[in-house]
Design goal:
This protein has helices at residues 2-28, 65-71, 96-102, 136-139, 280-293, 310-316, 334-337, 357-365, 420-426, 464-474, and strands at residues 75-82, 117-125, 131-134, 144-148, 154-156, 158-163, 168-172, 194-199, 207-218, 234-237, 249-251, 257-265, 274-279, 303-307, 324-329, 345-349, 352-353, 372-379, 382-389, 408-410, 413-417, 432-435, 452-456, 459-460, 480-485, 491-496. By secondary structure, the protein is α+β, with helices and mostly antiparallel strands. A hairpin with a 5-residue loop joins strand 11 (249-251) and strand 12 (257-265). The N and C termini lie far apart (149 Å). Keywords: Hydrolase, Protease, Repeat, Serine protease, Signal.
């Protein structure tokens, strides 16, 4: 019993001693902030590095991997170079924004920019032998065009042709057995359908984004400066498109090309919700024309139109809000010859409904001069049909072909045709490049080699033979004024007297 009491006494002493020790430690310890509250980790939050795969299978039609894998190798990076543009005194052209502050006098003191300027966009391979579609604005006025493939191969591209009215251009590289994308039918695309945009935004190669078709037949007035001939019937999508995507592919989930990405709706310069693509129905026709004729065959119905809306319907007492209203007809137009009149309402072209001007433009743009189309229209609330034979801009049904000009010798100098690349770069429709000045009768005129003659007096020069014709005709007069441009963009004028 005594031993038991002794053990309990020792245990009590130990406990008391420990308490005094701890208490003494706390009394001697400096005052500290209260310990932080421990919060349990959220069991629903995990690091992204944690490897967890489920057995969930993505439903058919929502998995984009097959389309992305088939399309990406056929979308290329288009890189462009532009030589510094000089003014007539040899200095750089001043930015208009700077000119309003410093004045034109300051321009002569500017130093030329070192090295070429560079641009970037995308392109789509449409044929295994190296034909590539892109936007006209991607390569417009470029001195050099380079194409970088998805597999990092690099080629210098030749410009085959352009069509500013649809913002399309065709390039060619010397290569075979290239991956390519087949055309899809943009007419069958439906609003709400999934699509992929593939391109090179911000120089990020082979970028794929997804979205849906938001609208069809959209007109955004981006091509309005093309002498009123711009064709806008864009596919609108919410797939993310940014600078550098221009010229890239818009494809469906089968990997079919249904459009060429061209523009974004933005006040910042970057994507904010919508982008626009040229539909494949227009792309295929334009590219076929460039391959076959070197120039696009524009067929015209010859009508001035206005979309039917509530205001027009009230004003003209119309019984419908569908179709496009004919405000007027061009003289000797295909529409007039087909019997259409002012006040008629066009509702269909070849069975395809048209309710907007862009839809009408798109339907007619698929055809060439000489083709016949069936026009359905309303007159006095009665449905009628007419067959119209489409015409070109000159009022005929002829196919317009690019004339193959040849170099000629005249007065000891060589006059050569202007290349397609030079015409695109300088904004020309033709001309004659002169060389061999020193050994010719032009040596005293002040003209330098490389000068491109575009006009002689009021006569437009489109080919070397024009120079010979117009200068020969001027020999019986007091001379002629030769107008033109140098390859660096300098414009110049030279008076030429009678040839000796």
């Amino acid at each position: 019993m005594q031993a038991k009491q002794m053990m309990l006494g020792l245990l009590g002493s130990a406990v008391l001693g420990g308490g005094v020790a701890v208490g003494g430690y706390k009394l001697l310890e400096p005052e500290r902030q209260s310990a932080p509250q421990v919060v349990a980790a959220d069991p629903n939050v995990r690091y992204t590095s944690e490897l967890r795969s489920s057995n969930y299978v993505v439903p058919e039609g929502l998995n984009f991997t097959a389309a992305a894998a088939s399309v990406t190798p056929a979308v290329v990076h288009v890189m462009t170079e532009y030589a510094p543009k000089a003014s007539q005194n040899g200095s750089m052209r001043m930015d208009p924004f700077l000119r309003q502050f410093f004045g034109e006098e300051f321009e002569q003191y500017q130093q030329p920019q070192r090295g070429p300027q560079q641009g970037s966009g995308s392109g789509v391979i449409i044929a295994a032998n190296g034909y590539i579609v892109t936007n006209n604005h991607v390569i417009d006025k470029a001195d050099k065009i380079t194409v970088v493939m998805d597999d990092k191969r690099k080629f210098e591209a030749e410009l085959v042709g352009t069509d500013p009215t649809t913002d399309l251009a065709l390039l060619k590289v010397k290569a075979d057995n290239l991956p390519f994308i087949r055309y899809g039918n943009s007419d069958q695309v439906k609003v709400g359908e999934w699509v992929l945009a593939v391109g090179n935004p911000f120089n990020l190669n082979s970028t794929v984004t997804a979205g849906i078709i938001s609208a069809k037949g959209r007109n955004i007035n981006i091509l309005r400066d093309q002498q009123g001939m711009g064709i806008e019937s864009f596919l609108q999508t919410d797939a993310v498109v940014n600078p550098g995507n221009s010229g890239g592919a818009l494809v469906n989930l089968n990997g079919d090309l249904i459009g060429i990405n061209s523009a974004i709706a933005s006040q910042t310069g970057s994507f904010v919700g919508y982008s626009f693509a040229v539909p494949s129905s227009i792309v295929s026709k334009v590219i076929e024309d460039l391959l076959k004729y070197k120039v696009v065959q524009r067929a015209l119905l010859g009508v001035q139109i206005r979309e039917v809306d509530a205001t027009l319907a009230s004003e003209k007492k119309l019984s419908t809000l569908n179709g496009v209203y004919i405000m007027g007809l061009s003289k000797n137009s295909s529409a007039a010859d087909a019997g259409l009149k002012e006040g008629d309402i066009i509702t269909e072209i070849n069975g395809a409904k048209v309710n907007t001007s862009s839809q009408l433009q798109e339907q007619v743009a698929r055809f060439r001069p000489g083709d016949k189309i069936k026009v359905t229209y309303l007159r006095e609330d009665k449905t009628r049909t007419a067959t119209a034979t489409l015409r070109n801009s000159t009022g005929t049904t002829d196919i317009i072909r690019e004339e193959l000009a040849k170099s000629i010798k005249y007065e000891g100098a060589t006059l050569a045709p202007v290349t397609r690349q030079e015409m695109n770069k300088l904004g020309l429709e033709g001309g004659a490049k002169i060389s061999g000045i020193k050994g010719s009768n032009f040596r005293e005129t002040g003209i330098d080699d490389g000068f491109i003659i575009t006009r002689i007096d009021k006569n437009k020069v489109t080919k070397p033979q024009d120079v010979q014709q117009f200068l020969e005709a001027a020999k019986d007069t007091q001379g002629a004024l030769v107008e033109g441009v140098y390859p660096d963009g300098r414009k110049a004028y030279y008076p030429i007297g009678q040839a000796e």
